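SAMPLE LOG
Freezer: B-3
Tube label: C17
Construct: single chain, 399 aa
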Amino acid sequence: MMSASPFTETSTSGRANGFDELSAAGPVQKVTLFTGVPVWVITGYAEARQVLTDPNVVRSFTEGPHADHVSDELRRAMNSHMLALNPPEHTRLRKLVSAAFTRRRVEELEPRIAEISAGLLDHMAELGKDGTPVDLVAEYGYPLPITVISELIGVPQLQRDEFRRLTALTLSGPLHTPEEYVAGAWEMVHYIRSLIEEKRANPGDDLLSAMIAVRDEGDRLTGDELTSMVFVLLVAGHETTVNLITNGTYTLLTHPDQLAKMRADATLIPAAVEEVLRFDPPVMTTLPAHTIGPVHIGQTTIPAGEVVLPAVWSANRDLSRFADPDTFDITREDKSHVGFGHGIHHCLGAPLARLEGRIAFRDLFGRFPDLRLADPGEDAGRTISLVLNGIPRLNLVTG
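STRUCTURE (predicted):
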């Protein structure tokens, strides 16, 4: 059934009303987005997991914002990455990148992440020493993950603010004109290619140098694949982690009983991270996909040639899966959320995001015992985005 889009360009806090309406109508609904694109939105937990593993549901690098205005050359440069491809191309790329982006490499980052965190908190303490509100996003939520992923990949410090401007433009493409989006995308491609050439000439102990050098039975990443993978790793490696840290801090501060539990028992910090990923995840939906054959979900059949959009937010709030889903409970036993997706496109950077989330919650609430919202009566506005779920500004009092 086609309905008007509930997804409009509005700021929201708490639950997302558009997804609530769809969930109440059933786990599979056909709607028209504010962009004018008809899609099948999957709001149920079991249904989302099914769609994310159904062989008739595939990704395409021809999909995305302003797709009709993007040249094949730009599309290949931006979308030749794992999130936009399917087996066997996806399998090959994931194997190659995993050879460089290892769990050991992530685990070895913990001391450095803690060092970056401590320095940022020192600065926050100085800014807020007279009771002046401090913006968590600007002073901690953004600088921590962008510094970590930039150092991991090898982005020079002086270029990081410009990089974030470009990622914001390319991620929120539907909110810009086609011309603005394409110009920003080309800027991003040229920037990444220049960074690749620099690393090729002067390799270092970083992820980009490792990806340039990686070999697998004579295989290697092509130029477009390398450019696309750097783009998706940089974007996924910081933007979603900003949201995890900010959403989590806001949620804990607005649920003082749960915050008290975490403060009293530090072993609950990993569980708190998982519950934030379920209750207020960094993304609203996965990337769009399309059907290449009929997909049967309960009593509904989605024909071939349709766009499908699994709604992470709604799946994580599905009453048929989670007891009291609208309750934030860090002692919840069921941690099988889809905050990092599911199936072959499950987030490769999930271990890094979890590590940064644990360090952030530990350090923030450990350093500032009296941390609180500057204006407890004001709802946190949300990022205007179909995919991302974040808070662009969060003013806190540190003491």
